[in-house]
Amino acid sequence: MDFSFSEEQTLLRNTIQSFIQDNYDFDKRREIIQSEEGMSKDNWKQLAELGLLGVPFSENDGGLEFSSVETMIVAEEFGKGLVVEPYIQTVVTCGGFLRRASEAQRQEHLPRLISGDEIWAFAYAEPQGRFNLADIKVSASKSGDDYTLNGDKCVVSAAPWAQKLIVSARTSGDQSDKEGISLFIVDKANDGVSTRDYKTVDGSMASEVSFENVKLNSSSLIGEEGNAHALIELVADETIAALCAEAIGAMSVLNETTVEYCKTRKQFGQPIGKFQVLQHRMVDMFMQYEQSVSMTYMVNLKLEEEDIERSKAASGAKVQICNAAKFIGQSAVQLHGGMGMTDELNVGHYFKRLSMIETQLGNADHHLKKYSLAS
Amino acid sequence: MDLNFTKADQDFRNEVREFIEENFSSEINAGQNIEKYHEVTSDQMKEGILSWHKTLYKKGWIAPHWPVEYGGIDWSITQRYIWDQECANAGTTPLIPFGLTMLGPVIIAFGNDHQKDWVLKGILSGDDWWCQGYSEPGAGSDLASLRTKAERDGDHYVVNGHKIWTTLAQYADWMFCLVRTSNEGKPQEGISFLLIDMNTPGIEVKPIITVDGGHEVNEVFLEDVRVPVENLVGEENMGWTIAKFLLGNERTGIAGVARSKKAIDKLKDIANSELNNGEPLMKDSSFNKKITELEVDLTALEYTELRTLAKESQGQGPGVESSILKIKGTEIQQKISELTLEAIGNYASPYITPLSVRNFGSNYLEVGPEHTQGVSQNYFGMRKTSIYGGSNEIQRNIIAKMVLGL
Question: Could you please report the per-residue DSSP string of B371-395?
């Protein structure tokens, strides 16, 4: 049993920390998220130059061939910096699909992803589907070798920046069947793809995406037709593992900031951190954080396990992270008093990001049920 | 013991309900549901918020809790409760409390005849918009440590200092303000209560944008602001007594039971239309349980409020019970906003630009179903309720000290 990081892993962490220190202080982040673009193309290029966009891919595909632990480190540090550039969406989620795609697809797409020339987004959610990844109305009907894509996806994170989308669509079966789901690579510039872009609560961007008779040829199909559900579950779990890491990064900053504030803020002639009721609240925040770190390590080390074991690990971790995100976020604002309510302080921004992580790929209720069904 | 309202009370309920139906419309009284808020100017916004106020002023119902001689009505406490309930049920624009609930009773209790005349008139008519100059950067929970000072110079006080969290000061004509007039004795003993014209030279109002993107609170900077001595309320250095009296009034009605009931109804509507595995979310046993627990909690609060009310109508003023109402009321409001956010699933994410003033209108961006609009902002905005008006930690301290004798 060993939970320590290797020298290389620590080096990787240091690299990201200095990237964030140099490029991503709170004021710079504010400029980025308030710009029309909503992200920094320069930062994205730099991440590519540092090799970070290639973390999970094989050396054959031009990547670094690192494990999930390295991805966890990247995501955790990005969580501390509240990075809005779509690393998880592009590298972890879409990259997760692509590294399991055909040789031809990998050769066609990965070089441009790893070099930072293309951003990718995964379009899975639908208005009626809530968190059920199999509740899919978007349809891809086949004629000859081609498919025609129709329907609407909602809240597609990072889609405004993306050139390419990976879309889950129904090629057969009923609306919630696990069978009959297929994955397609869709160029956003294709005829019939339209997007409505908007800013999100956490400073990122998303789109409502509509497909109207979008023509796709069979080379856009990832894996076998109708058999994508298991792969979607797998990549969703990997994404959850990365989101958990991002969350613990954000939680650690909130906890440190809160403790520091309570040590310096004076009321009634003493630092408010001297009041026992606030001390206990901060201790609970700390314990929630530690429990979340444990679950994050656990899930990231179990991603290679059998489907059921992996899925339980991901759902369990997500439940812990959701509960901790809520408790730490709300408590950090409360302990900062009015200051915690301001847009000026970073506290509210971390709270908002954590609140969105709660919802992404299923909230605590959803994963509690999933965990229980898998047990 | 009797849980029923009398026949007279029920008749009264019908009467006020009818009046609200005939006179309130969210379109005319545009404080709520303002679409395209970004096209509304500050003056129009103010007018919208005030239009229901002015309707009630014309009817003579603007200040039911004031003594009749000052423009109030001789409604019983039960009748006032019914009135509040009916307003909440109809979703009327919340009245701005600074003049009506806070300053009015202070002036009636502590003001001189001249102040009673001009201050009360302006509050009733809505011509004077008041804001509250209490908190300072260094004086939040520990309000008595405030440092904004007022020094006597002939017939004037010269005020210098910095107030914060001043709600809707951007619309205010006047501010009632706690200032330090003496550094002798305990901090509480050197505070005075001043009425300050916001148009006086030396006052600067700076917006604070909050996490929900709204602009409701402000900083107010005061530099050599000259305030006529006649604007002192009560005597010099008795401001703390007045402030305590006022905070007691601030907490009355803070439970917000009727409005929370409305919000739970709305939450249920949302949970009935949102789907979860093809079924309404409301049918999901764990979500349903959370809503049900919240309803039971709210019912308990409703009866706690009614018990307080019954005591009050027997002449026992609102005491520390108001701390229970504040804590439970705000916790329930926050929980409702939390479950509503949970209910809308993926549509928690879209963000509407920082132009909305919560409770008073918002700018709708058409992404997702209508019921998802503004839900996230409301969740983040509601976090303030356990901080303002004496944080919930301070309220618990009050109960520990005053009720439990700890």
Answer: GGTTHHHHHHHHGGGGTSSS-HHHH
Same domain, residue pair B169 and B50? no
**ipTM (interface predicted TM):** 0.96
Cβ distance B210 to A341 less than 8 Å, yes or no, reads yes
Same domain, B218 and B261: no
Measured CA to CA, the distance from residue A269 to residue A265 in angstroms comes to 10
Contact across the interface for A338 and B387, Cβ inside 8 Å: yes
Domain that holds residue B273: 252-403
Mean pLDDT confidence for B267-287 = 96
* H or E element at residue B257: helix B257-273
Nearest chain B residue to A266 by CA distance is B138
| CATH number for position B179 | 2.40.110.10
Is there a contact between A341 and B348 if contact means CB atoms under 8 Å apart?
no
Smallest Cβ–Cβ distance between A352 and the set B165, B211, B274 belongs to B211
* Tens digits of residue pLDDT in A2-38: 899 999 999 999 999 999 999 999 999 999 998 889 9
Classify domain A7-117 by CATH number: 1.10.540.10
- Partner-chain residue, chosen from B275, B365, B393, that has the shortest CB–CB distance to A130: B275
- Within a domain: B114: no
Extents of the domains making up chain A: 7-117, 121-226, 230-374
Q: Do A278 and B393 touch (CB under 8 A)?
A: yes
Report the candidate in A193, A195, A177 with the shortest Cα–Cα distance to residue A129. A177
B66-76: pLDDT as tens digits = 999 999 998 98
> So what's the architecture of A230-374 in CATH?
Up-down Bundle (1.20)
Distance in angstroms (rounded) separating the CA atoms of residues A209 and A228 = 21
